[in-house]
């Protein structure tokens, strides 16, 4: 029985398990509730104190249980539940708080091309005070300018022959801000154009703060592809000035897919591109039927957040690509993503997966609120369509 262990070991075990349980509970609460809020003070504070707060509370709980164990040492059976409560809490919160809330089938890993660090990516002149000190301390593990190219082939049996080898490049979440230089965004755009895509997709969140809205054409106007540069708006775009952002994006040569679909033709053959932009959209069944009416059977979904993967699967998409999560931005060894900013759960916060028969890909995105990424490099997705069975 755990409550009969020596007090120091009992304290360490309970403190660890209680910390895991409380961290998992806080992560669950954040992903299910706070991540949908506007970037208010409570959301930012909660994100910063989430894990350390859970650990400190775990230490306190461990001390309480150890104290109670000491006072009942004469007959430990008087309170056997004290030793098991943190254990059950840890398993429950790990299952639902850290590993996600839905049973997503993982897909075969993709090919990841890791590029060398780009300099100058961080605008050090804008990093003053504690932010600058923190970034310089964490510089050896900061991968904010180490771009990764996520390559994937998607085999579709009924893909029209004209689209065999069709290449799609997806970039997202630039969060144009003074902390990352324009040279960095130009570098990402040049890499995206250098893939020679047939179709370019942008997954939303152009900016973080309103003063940088005028910079959208400076960054985005250089994206190009023969079949167009299509975009959806993200939560930050809706929070700031969606009409102004839309106007500037269109002036940059981009085309908006606001919960609608378009057909891309090669002669008499065609595929469909479907955009679902509201990160927490709840499309009604009649909306789904109307949106999918008359579309070709091969359908590519572009969503801002993984929350909309379910809607994309209901629309008959063979693949859906999302952003929004930044891959977690700071990932932990063994645990991976904790704060996923999506109620879909942490399993879909980064990389490939499956919802039903639909392949899902969540990109880490190319920007960051703060220029700090740990075990979570910036990313672009290159998807190549192939005709036949894999």
Which helices and strands occur, and which strands form pairs?
Blueprint: H1 7-32, H2 41-71, H3 81-98, E1 111-114, H4 129-137, E2 148-156, E3 167-171, H5 182-194, E4 199-202, H6 216-220, E5 229-231, H7 235-239, H8 242-251, E6 254-256, E7 260-266, E8 269-276, H9 285-292, E9 299-303, H10 309-314, E10 319-322, E11 351-355, E12 358-362, E13 379-387
Parallel strand pairs: 2-13, 3-4, 4-5, 5-6, 8-9, 9-10, 10-12
Antiparallel strand pairs: 1-2, 3-13, 7-8, 11-12
Helix pairs in contact: 1-2, 1-3
Question: What does it look like?
Answer:
The protein is an alpha/beta fold and 390 residues long. The chain is 34% helix and 18% strand. It is built from ten helices and 13 strands. The strands form two sheets. The protein has a seven-stranded mixed beta sheet. Helix 1 (7-32) runs antiparallel to helix 2 (41-71) and helix 1 (7-32) runs parallel beside helix 3. The model is unreliable at 73-78 (pLDDT under 50).
Average pLDDT rating: 83
How would the global form be characterised?
A: globular
Q: Classify the helix fraction into a percent range.
A: 25-40%
- Estimated radius of gyration: 23 Å
User: What is the distance, rounded to the nearest whole angstrom, between the alpha carbons of the first and last residues?
Assistant: 53 Å
Class per helix and strand makeup: alpha/beta
Please, how many helices? 10
Question: In summary, what is this structure?
Answer:
This protein is of the alpha/beta class and 390 residues long.
List keywords for this structure.
single chain; 390 residues; alpha/beta; six-stranded mixed sheet; 10 helices; 13 strands; globular
């Amino acid at each position: 029985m755990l409550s009969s262990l020596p007090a120091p070991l009992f304290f360490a075990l309970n403190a660890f398990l209680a910390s895991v349980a409380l961290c998992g509970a806080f992560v669950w609460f954040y992903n299910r509730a706070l991540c949908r809020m506007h970037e208010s003070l409570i959301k930012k504070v909660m994100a910063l104190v989430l894990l350390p707060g859970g650990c400190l509370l775990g230490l306190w709980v461990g001390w309480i249980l150890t104290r109670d164990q000491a006072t009942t040492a004469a007959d430990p059976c008087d309170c056997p539940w004290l030793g098991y409560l943190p254990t059950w809490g840890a398993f429950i919160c790990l299952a639902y708080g850290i590993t996600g809330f839905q049973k997503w089938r993982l897909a075969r890993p993709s090919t990841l091309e890791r590029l060398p660090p780009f300099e100058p990516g961080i605008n050090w002149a804008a990093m003053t005070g504690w932010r600058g000190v923190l970034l310089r301390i964490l510089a050896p593990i900061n991968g904010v300018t180490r771009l990764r190219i996520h390559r994937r082939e998607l085999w579709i049996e009924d893909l029209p022959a004209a689209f065999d080898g069709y290449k799609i490049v997806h970039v997202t979440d630039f969060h144009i801000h003074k902390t990352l230089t324009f040279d960095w965004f130009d570098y990402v755009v040049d890499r995206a154009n250098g893939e020679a895509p047939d179709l370019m997709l942008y997954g939303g969140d152009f900016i973080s703060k309103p003063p940088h809205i005028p910079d959208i054409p400076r960054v985005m106007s250089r994206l190009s592809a023969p079949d167009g540069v299509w975009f959806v708006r993200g939560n930050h775009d809706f929070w700031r000035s969606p009409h102004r952002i839309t106007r500037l994006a269109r002036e940059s040569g981009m085309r908006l897919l606001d919960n609608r679909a378009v057909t891309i033709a090669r002669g008499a053959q065609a595929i469909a591109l479907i955009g679902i932009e509201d990160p927490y959209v709840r499309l009604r069944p009649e909306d789904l039927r109307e949106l999918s009416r008359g579309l070709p059977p091969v359908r590519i979904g572009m969503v801002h957040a993984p929350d909309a993967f379910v809607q994309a699967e209901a629309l008959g998409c063979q693949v859906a690509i999302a952003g929004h999560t930044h891959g977690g931005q700071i990932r932990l060894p063994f645990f991976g993503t904790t704060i996923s900013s999506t109620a879909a759960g942490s399993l879909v916060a980064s990389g490939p997966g499956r919802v039903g028969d639909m392949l899902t890909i969540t990109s880490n995105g190319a920007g960051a609120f703060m220029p700090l990424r740990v075990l979570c490099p910036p990313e672009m997705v290159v998807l190549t369509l192939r005709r036949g069975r894999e």
